[in-house]
Amino acid sequence: MKKRITIAVALIIVVGGGITAYLCMQRTKSESMPQSIEVPMPAKSPESDTLKQIPEITSKQLLLPRLAESDKLVLDTLAELITDKSLRNLFFGKQMIRQIVATIDNLPRKRLPVTVCPVKRAKGKFITEGSEDKKAISPANAKRYSAYVKIAEDIDAKKLVETYLSLYPLFQQAYEELGYPGKKFHDRLMIALYDLLNAPAIEEPIKLIQPNVFYLYADQDLESRSAGQKILLRIGKENSAKIRKKLYEIRQQLILHNRPG
């Protein structure tokens, strides 16, 4: 039983960290970081009516660790399952489930605080190209995120969802502690997935402006997008396609596993 729990915790943390990693980019003075602004929730996704019918998610009788005491188990398991130490070192290793929950909660919003991310920032500075009046995101910038994308890309979506359902009480507890008593984390996760999958596919290079110390997207429609969508644009077209492919697989598995009856 302990071995089964260990594997379950590891899988959800590796995937949760991997999928949110590319959204937790290094933010320096040269990057676009508008002030914290709350925006309305996205329009209801096609899954909304289905979510209302989903039976209560249970732990499937797994003996889960306490939320506040789960980090050591998570880190020990990561050390066993991720042989590449450089990938293991991408994780902070503290309050990981809480940080994953907070990250997912903020993806559809205007701003994603760096402090909620479960992984370390991508190395190096945000890379641009072009003259001062014709700035654009450089293709070289995408290479900064390759290690994060690899973690997410290698995960089996079916196993991830099965593990997520087994560990759901921990995620729900973290979500309620975040300030949402009576609200379901699962609903928020589906909204975040829907928002990310609806990010626009834009041909590169993506143009920027710099009205002050921060870069902004030159296209006002892009600048008004959610934090998750804007960062999908920032990581490069190829990385974005890989991430969205994995997110689509995960969403399909969530719908399949949670279908009533």
What is the element layout, followed by pairings?
Blueprint (H helix, E strand, L loop, with lengths): L1 H20 L26 H5 L18 H11 L3 H4 L7 H11 L21 E2 L6 E2 L8 H8 L3 H10 L1 H10 L7 H13 L10 E2 L6 E2 L2 H4 L3 H8 L2 H21 L4
Antiparallel strand pairs: 1-2, 3-4
Helix pairs in contact: 1-3, 1-5, 1-6, 1-7, 5-8, 5-9, 6-12, 7-12, 9-12
Number of structurally distinct domains = 1
Helix content: 40-55%
Shape label: globular
Structural class: mainly alpha
Quaternary structure: single chain
**Alpha carbon gap, first and last residue:** 28 Å
β-sheet strand percentage: under 5%
- Helices and strands, in order, run as HHHHHEEHHHHEEHHH
Enumerate the spans where pLDDT stays under 50 for 5 or more consecutive residues: 25-61
Radius of gyration: 18 Å
Question: What would you say about this model in short?
Answer:
Helices cover 48% and strands 3% of the residues.
Description:
There is one protein chain. The protein has one domain. The protein is globular, with a radius of gyration of 18 Å. It has 261 residues and is mainly α. The chain has helices spanning 2-21, 48-52, 71-81, 85-88, 96-106, 146-153, 157-166, 168-177, 185-197, 220-223, 227-234, 237-257; strands spanning 128-129, 136-137, 208-209, 216-217. Mean pLDDT is 76; it is low at 25-61. The protein is 48% helix and 3% strand.
